[in-house]
Amino acid sequence: MFPFLYQAPDGGVSLPSYGLLLMLAFVAGTTVGFFRLRRVGIHPDLLPGLVMIAVILGIFGARLLHFIGSEPKALLSNPLVLLKLNSGGMAVYGGVLAASFGCFFFAKKKGANPWKLSDALLPCFFLALAVGRLGCLSAGCCHGAIIENTSNWSSLTGDLLPGGQFVSLQSFPWIGTIYNEGIGVGRIWDVPVYPTQLWELLGALFLFGVLSWTWAKKRRFDGQIVAIGMVTYPLLRSSIEHFRGDTIRGVNHFGLLSTSQVVSLVVALCGLWVWRLQAPKGLEKEVPLTREADQIDEELFGEDL
How far apart are CA 260 and CA 155, in angstroms? Predict the structure, then answer.
């Protein structure tokens, strides 16, 4: 749609929208997380270590799941391909899972309650995911499959966007996207496709709001937000997955499931296990580090967050 905020002529240095929005996603998530950790008595000095672990393990996990699901032969023949970031792709699910495990045990090693920390930070992940999917929409990746029976459609954005356009349809999904050939990283050109990036963006924002409200008002035990997130996000992701149009998604697992849907099933079952494990333990006492932390959080995000 809008792959570059600035594209230099003659192959000069350009400013890709995707990279900038990923940076914005990181800043948004860590900023909200900074204040929320203070509210539950966890010093935000842990954040630099958490961020470093999340970045390193996140990249590794995303690369690993991509090759396991889409290019296993390439991985088996040369495991070092994981380090060649310009070869192959990344699977977000793998990055999230690897980063989550690493941060969980890092927090435990540092003496912080890992479940309390995870509850505070998980909604921040969904905020970052929403901004990141906006980057996918701009770049043209993670798009949907071709929408059938779309002979009657009209443009909503015309030539406003250099990489494509939003279009209006007379039936579901009502709004689609078209990517122009040769611009961005899309794989399906010049025909309406399902706006799966937009759907996940809206779903992630909804989860951010609901989990933030639950964290502030309805939390009854440490690990509750994690358990809810582990069940609800797989439902969202698996539903959207049916409409994805990527050509290397490993859609033949068990004859009908994609890699992400298989992972979603496992994650959801683990979420139910977390609920059963943590619910009887209740909520450990929380003492905000300073009253100022509460006031700043309320001013920025509202008293319910």
Answer: 32
Instruction: For residue 267, give Cα distances in angstroms to 43, 132, 273.
Output: 29, 21, 10
In 192-223, alpha helices (H): 196-217
Q: Residue 90 carries which DSSP code?
A: -
Could you tell me the residue range of the domain that residue 114 belongs to? 15-145+194-301
As for how many domains the chain has, the answer is 1
> Does residue 30 fall inside a structural domain?
yes
The position carrying tokens 């997130």 is 229
**Residue 121 located in a structural domain:** yes
| Pair 287, 224: CB distance under 8 Å | no
- Rounded-to-10 torsion of CA 51, 133, 265, 244: -150
pLDDT at position 261 is: 84
What tens digit of pLDDT does each residue of 110-161 get?
999 999 999 999 999 999 999 999 999 998 888 999 998 777 889 999 888 8
Direct distance between the N- and C-terminal alpha carbons of the chain, in angstroms, rounded to an integer: 33
- pTM for the full model? 0.86
3-class DSSP state of 156: coil
- Biggest CA–CA distance in the chain, Å, is 63
Which single residue is written with the structure tokens 């619910």? 279
- Give strand pairing partners of 154: 168
Tell me whether residue 169 is in a domain: no
pLDDT in tens, 179-221: 988 777 778 889 999 999 999 999 999 999 999 999 999 999 9
Alpha-carbon torsion, ordered 126, 130, 133, 137, to 10 deg: 170
114 falls within a domain: yes
DSSP E strand boundaries for 63-163: 153-155
What are the tokens at 142? Answer: 């993670």
Q: What percent of the chain has pLDDT over 70?
A: 89
